Amino acid sequence: MTEQNTGLLDDAGTKSGERILEVRDLKTYFHTAAGIAKAVDGVSFSLDRGKTLAIVGESGSGKSVTASSVIRLLAKTGKIEDGSIEFDGIDMVHVPERELLKLRGSDISMIFQDPMSGLDPVFKVGTQMVELIRAHSDLGKKEAYDRAVEMLRLVGIPDPEARMDAYPYELSGGMCQRVIIAMAVSCHPKFIIADEPTTALDVTVQSQVLSLLRGLQDELGTAILLITHNLGIVWEMADDVMVMYAGRTCEYTSMRELYSNPLHPYTWGLLDSMPRLSDTAKTDLKTIPGVPPDLRLTGTCCNFCNRCPYATEECHRRVPELKEVEPGHFVACLRQDGEHRLVRGEVNHHE
Amino acid sequence: MSETQAAAVAERPQVASGEPILSIKHLSKDFRLRGGKLFSKPQVLHALSDVSLDVYPGETLGIIGESGCGKSTLGRCVVQLHQATSGQIVYGGQDITKLSGQPLKAVRKDIQMIFQDSYSSLDPRYTAAKTIEEPMLIYRTESDASKREQRVLEVMREVGLDVQHLQRYPHEFSGGQRQRINVARALVLDPKVIVCDEPVSALDVSIQAQVLNLFRHLQQERGLTYLFISHDLSVIKHISDRVAIMYLGRVMELCPADKIYAHPLHPYTKALLSAIPPESPFDKKQEIKLQGEIPSPVGEQVGCPLAGRCPFCMERCRHERPSLEEVEPGHRVACFKYHDVVAE
Ligand SMILES: Nc1ncnc2c1ncn2[C@@H]1O[C@H](COP(=O)(O)OP(=O)(O)OP(=O)(O)O)[C@@H](O)[C@H]1O
Ligand SMILES: Nc1ncnc2c1ncn2[C@@H]1O[C@H](COP(=O)(O)OP(=O)(O)OP(=O)(O)O)[C@@H](O)[C@H]1O
Ligand code: SF4
Ligand code: SF4
Ligand SMILES: [Mg+2]
Ligand SMILES: [Mg+2]
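YS: structure for the whole thing
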């Protein structure tokens, strides 16, 4: 195993006590009136202290549900059906609700995808921050206030004292997102789940927020689970990357390996659809034709088979398992395992 | 893409010309903040200050800038969700900030807005059909129910939604599909101008690509004009004909989209470009970090908004404000550094 691959499914991390999160074969289903939606249906990954794992993948592929499962913050209809989640020696699937509440906000903090959902519209942002800081530390009112102002300054909010009195609707989209980030890091958590943390930020502020997170990592060894669709951020921040599609892991390896040697056909499609600054032609962007499968009906074939240009008849009958096809490089594709090798761009013509 | 489409793309003018469809003149928007303490005097937040922009028919004017610099406020003023504090917005020969009643309604119909968050901008209790139909009821454009239904089906097809999904609710659609519903809703009244406020930033790249292609095709087919707000510079470059760069409520630079990447002038634009995440893990970005405190839009504003953080700041910049001036054909900059070069 190479140095960069420290977060992968090996035992090195566990032995050295560096491993902070270990998720194995997680399955989270939603029981709805219309049937059972297999939102997460077989996801495994691990994360070491001070490292960043990025999850990328199609919208609706289960990235947020995976993250919410880790801290068991699921809608009533959602249930962890199978698999194990171990955080810092704690069995997160079975730990009592009371202890879970203590963990959330102190050891683990979560930056939610929708910035508005993390803020209460009827309270001033300063009040919300001070309350959170006091709930998870023994700081007095004044110290907590000062800490909150300092955090707002660190995430680049101008004139932070004045903004403590603002209500969420008085702030721009990006400012709300930064308040959430400030709240998430204010208690020095061991582990941060950041679900699309910078979608509303311009690149200079984004860069500032990302270096804040990296600084926290270097200083306190914070581990980060980063969900993003911005591949530039992945290249900048991640140690390892997991690519998800329709509830399953389809590729999992180190960030550099994923960039230089992507192996799953869905990953290829994803990398190809990105607009690039270096492009000069104003033509259509490449897309992946078709739509993802109905999550009530998955589990009998490769979930990508209806859109995969490389699909064979077998792909419609068998579920590909996640296999280590090269050292530290895991892929779930029937045509990408040891003996069989696909070549990117060489689409089959027999269909 | 078909050949005719490709030709249409090639023919799009690089520098806008002709009569503007929308003319924003010296637009300012202030918000009054309540003082934190009781009896303290209320402060004024200058969200937009003296913004002037001409938008030409059939073009896409991209808008980028620091978070909180007033992009959404500008969009909201244009669609009349905010009442401007001063200045004019001229559309169809009249200042729409002065309109009310029926004439205002007519203008609102022509200028639609698509919001960033595809989820919270849709009412969870409304099916796709009802959501798309609603503007026709609000603006009473079609009294015949079956004609309305016809129209709903028409736009659903146009944006690539499955008409089988007519009766589905928002949560039953993926992010990309929900954004298509928003687009369909904006299109149903057949507008001329659409303000797109970060319409793709919540979408994954493959769906983002679908939605961006959709915007382009609709523009080619209907001659739509877009005001396109985004933080993603590669998206802006891909979709825009011209780009306006904003900072602290003002336009700092305005030029053709390609030029902003090939030949940026304003110090803020240069800093912005240098902060873009790399295209590969092996590229290292050479970031120009703007030093110093980020200035606040609250209270009186003097000098160049970037003065406190600009590496080229001169004495003059601290008390005088540079106006947006043309320094090369089609390229405007608000910075003394370039004004002087031209003057010499
Ligand atoms: N409360 C719920 N009830 C039923 N289905 C749900 C619920 N929450 C999520 N799902 C479904 O689970 C799947 C995974 O959702 P998730 O939010 O994890 O996607 P995601 O990968 O985060 O997508 P995005 O990039 O759009 O945020 C989706 O198909 C979604 O519709
Ligand atoms: N209703 C309001 N009351 C008071 N201040 C407001 C209100 N709406 C916006 N502002 C302020 O106006 C400024 C500009 O906000 P705006 O939402 O236009 O920024 P933006 O450029 O869209 O930012 P972002 O990229 O983060 O969305 C901000 O300082 C914001 O706090
Ligand atoms: S298993 Fe078959 S359908 Fe699935 S990704 Fe591989 S080639 Fe494509
Ligand atoms: S006017 Fe002065 S402070 Fe402003 S950007 Fe130009 S050089 Fe910098
Ligand atoms: Mg999500
Ligand atoms: Mg905005």
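YS: worth flagging: The pocket of magnesium ion (ligand 5) is lined by residues A 63-64, 113, 195 (CB under 6 Å).
IM: good catch. Also Residues 114 and 231 of chain A are 19 Å apart (CA to CA).
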